Amino acid sequence: MNSELRSLTDQFGLNTAEMEAVRLDFCFACVSRISHLLELDEVVAAFQDFKAYREGRIDKAQFEVLKKSIFELANKHPGSRSLDGTKHSAVSATYALANAINGNPVAAAEYAAYSSTYGYGGYAAGDMESYQEEYCEQVKILKKILRQNS
Predict the structure, then answer these.
(1) Other beta carbons less than 10 A from residue 105's beta carbon
(2) What's the domain count of the chain?
């Protein structure tokens, strides 16, 4: 659990309506760091649609449809087809994306950190120290976004 991120989220009211743009910027940044772990074509397309929404290339109505459909994709994810033992990495990356699109910064960040860490190998997922590098990066990203929007 990234306690510093949770603290910043509470301190700056990241989950308020007024902070939606900041929240989505942060969520997108977290998922961008692990986007190479997204495997299913539909999920990669959803990531691209998220990017398009942030860039104003799709409208709010289309984004609302994406918000509703992305968790269905995550819940039905069969796992990675790779043989390298990173099955859960792709699934967690998809859940990171689903939470990011739906504006859940802590869940998006934590799934992204899990996906990144699990990508090193299943052994790393049980070692909380393995998450610290990603947690630190996420905090740096959020602080930068907050500075840019203050």
Answers:
(1) 25
(2) 1
